[in-house]
Each structure stands twice: as C-alpha cells, then as structure tokens.
Amino acid sequence: MLLLIGSFLGLMVIGLPVAISMATSSVLYIVFYGVAPDIIVAQRLIAGVESFPLLAVPFFILAGNLMNIAGVTGRIYSFAVALVGWMKGGLAQVNIIGSVVFSGMSGTALADAAGIGTIEIKAMKDHGYPIEAAVGVTAASATLGPIFPPSLPFVIYGMMANVSIGALFMAGILPGVVMTVLMMITVAVFAWVKRWGSDTPFSLKMIFGASLEVIVVMMVPLGIYLLMLLGLSLNFAILIGLAVLLACDWYFNFSAVMALMTPVILIGGMTMGWFTPTEAAVAAVLWSLFLGLVRYRTMTFKTLAKATLDTVETTASVLFIVASASVFAWLLTVSQTAQLLSTAILSITDSKWVFLILVNLLMLFVGCFLDTIAAITILVPILLPLVLQFHIDPVHFGLIMTLNLMIGLLHPPLGMVLFVLSRVAKLSVERTTIAILPWLVPLFVALILITFIPMITLWLPMEMGLIR
Fold it and tell me: DSSP secondary structure string, 279-314?
C-alpha cells in the first residue's frame, strides 16, 4: 500500500498528470509484488471505461460546448438580468441565477466557469464591481453545475457505487436550491456591507417578461400531460407542445425560453421514463444543435467542428483518468486498503455522524489534490463499504462526496475552476484564491446542512419512488 500510494504521490509532486501517475504507480506495484499478471493492467483499463452509463460523459460535455458556441449563454444572462438585475448587487445575483440555469444544461463546473462565467466577470467588471468580487461569486456559483441535474460526477459515482443515476439527478435538485438561496443571501450581505447598488432599473415590464418566460416553459410539460389525458399519443402530444412553444417564442420574441426548456426536457424526460440518463445526454446534444442551427442560427460548421474537437479532447482526458483510476482502485482493494481504513475508523468511532465529519475532512483534503473524476473512482470502492455499514444512504453520500470535491475545485494546487477563472480574469492564482475565500462560507454552510439533514437530499427521490 505504501509503494502504491507513495509512488503515486511522488509522481504527482514532480509534475506528472494525475492519470499517468496512477497508471505508472499501478504498474510498478504489479511488477514489484507480482500480485497479478501484467496483462491485468490492460484488462482493468478497458473494464474501467466499458460501461453504458459512461456514454453520457461525451454527450453532456458536447452539449455544454454547443450551448457555449450557440450563444445560449448570452441569452441566459439577459434573462437573469431581467429577473434579478434590479436587486442590490444585481449583477452578482445575476451571476448566480445564470449559473443555476446553465447548470441544467452542461453538468460540469468547468463549462459553467468558462462559458457563462466569462460573460459574467466582464459585465461585473464593466459595471464597477471589484474584479475579486466578480471572480469569487463566479467560482462559488460554478459549483452548482454538478449539483443540479444533469451532472457528470453523478454519472461516474452512480456507475462506481451501482446507484441509480436518475435518483442522484433528482436528489441534487433540492440541495441545489438550498445552495442557491445561501449564495443569494451572501450577495445581499456583501451588497449591504459594501453598498453595492442595483445594475438595472426596477421595471415591472422586464420582471413580467422574465416571469412569463418561466411560466411558458413550465406550461409545456403540463400541456403535454393534459393532451395525453385527452387520449392523444405521447409523440403527438410532444409535437403539439413543441409547436405551441415555437409559436410563442416567435410571436413574443422571448430571449431565453428555448434555452430554459433544456433542463425541463432532460429532467421531465427522465422523470416520465421517456429516456435513461445516458439517452438524456443525447437529447441535450440534439436540442443544442436545434437551437444553434435552426432557432438562433448562431452556429456555423466551423464552430461546430471546434466544439466537437474540444469534446473529443476533454472526453479523452476524462476517460483516461477513469481508466487509470479503475486500475488504481482495484489494487487498493487487492491490498486490503479498504479493510485497513475500515478497521481504523471503527476503532475511532461507531457514530455515523462522526464518520461523516471525518469523511468530509478527508474529501475536502483530497479534492485539493485530485481531479474530481479520479477522486470518485478511487474513493468510492474504499468508502462505500463503510457507508453501508453505518447505514448511510449511498445517494445521500453521493451528494456529500460531489459537493466536497466541487469545493476542492476552488483550491490550489489542482483546483481547475481556480485556474480557469484566474486565466479569464487575468489575475494571479494567489489573488484568485484570496478572492474566492469569502465565498466559501455559503458552500460550507450548505455542506453542513446537506451532511446532517439527509432529507434535503433524499426527500425528492423518495417522493418519486426512485429510492426507498
């Protein structure tokens, strides 16, 4: 175990990528101890990515990239400005609402930070906000991406823990709302202390227009359901619903109705059983293509090719990490690391609440040094037996793990959101880190609430019959 973990940490310290460090340390362990034939490395690499749920990964990444190049992010931003821009600290509130909407499309914190975050930081800076405030609120709101459905970390966790990905998606909705409220309260406090004003004049017309867009979006699934009650087939009801939606969008010239339909299509489709989470990822791509090529006509074949190549690059790096981590996690199991950790923790406490505190501390630490996907792939086989032993619901634990690792994305030395925002805002990593620190408060409050009040996570999937 010391050779496996020691060589992994040593290779990371000298600057090797996480995936290569894990693969190399795994090969060294097998060669040195002879625990299995060398061919087992290749077999475990393939087995690590040979999974149907993992097909969702490239499609959700592609959907996020397509949304960015189709100009959807700008429309979401305009919608958020109309809805909450009149509040004190208006653009900071807009930042949060924009991330909530965009997170229902991309499923990743990086897509949120690099996409709509770029627009938000520039707008806040142009309106006189300190660049540190713009970076801080953008970083905090980017963590909503993997909490609201869809979510790439949930896909990986569901595959590793053998948990329903649909249940995980539904479980993220209420915690996401709690995080959103806490962030908006934090912005209100900052606005009061620093005397931030509103950024758009209060206008009932703008608020009514934005609210009307939300109402139209929510009426579409209700209308489809009513048409089905009247005896129409599902396909015909959907066609009528989409036709009415397109007519309203054309007549009223809404800014973001079609974009707001993305999370409705994904969540509604999975809830009604029309498609699996993996098929939902394909639906997200098809809807993104429709918006970019047909409705908004902002997507060209050149930008489409660029989005595709970016997706191939990102998917390759993610799946390489998953494959390498699967070998590493298998060797940790073979070396009885899980049993050793279980014995050590049980010798400290038999309380599940103390266990959750220890696990939170562990994952906050790990999240600063390991990529999110690698951390999930490595930690789940080790911690899941203990989670079940303490009678903790694995869906609840999936939310705890994901939120911890999302907070890790905001910390050096390997916090990817930190580096993306540092580049976007043209700030040093040190200044970016300091700018983010105050905005960690609502995230830690949310983490405490989600950890110690399981029903925040479990209520919705239990009501929908996804878990017992």
Answer: HHHHHHHHHHHHIIIIIS----HHHHHHHHHHHHHH
Q: Which two tokens stand for residue 451?
A: 């950890």
pLDDT digits (tens, 9 = 90+) for 300-327: 888 888 888 888 887 888 788 888 888 8
384 Cβ contact partners less than 8 Å away, ≥ 6 residues apart: 160, 161, 394, 397
d(CA 237, CA 223): 8
Give the Cβ contact number of residue 219 at 10 Å.
Answer: 15
Contact 38, 46 (CB under 8 A): no
C-alpha closest to that of 50 among 457, 412, 326, 332: 326
195: phi then psi, degrees, rounded to nearest 5: 60, 45
CB atoms within 10 A of CB 388: 13
Classify residue 99 as exposed, middle or buried by CB count within 10 Å of its CB (0-12, 13-18, 19+): buried
Residue in 434, 387, 394, 390 with CA at minimum distance from that of residue 412: 434
Report H helices in 50-151.
Answer: 56-69, 72-84, 90-106, 109-114, 116-126, 131-142
Cβ neighbors of 331 (< 8 A, separation 6 or more) are 4, 26, 29, 30, 35
Q: Say what the pTM is.
A: 0.80
Domain ranges for the chain: 17-31+40-46+309-416+441-463, 55-305
The Cα 148–Cα 453 span in angstroms is: 18
Q: 20-32, pLDDT tens digit by residue?
A: 888 888 888 888 8
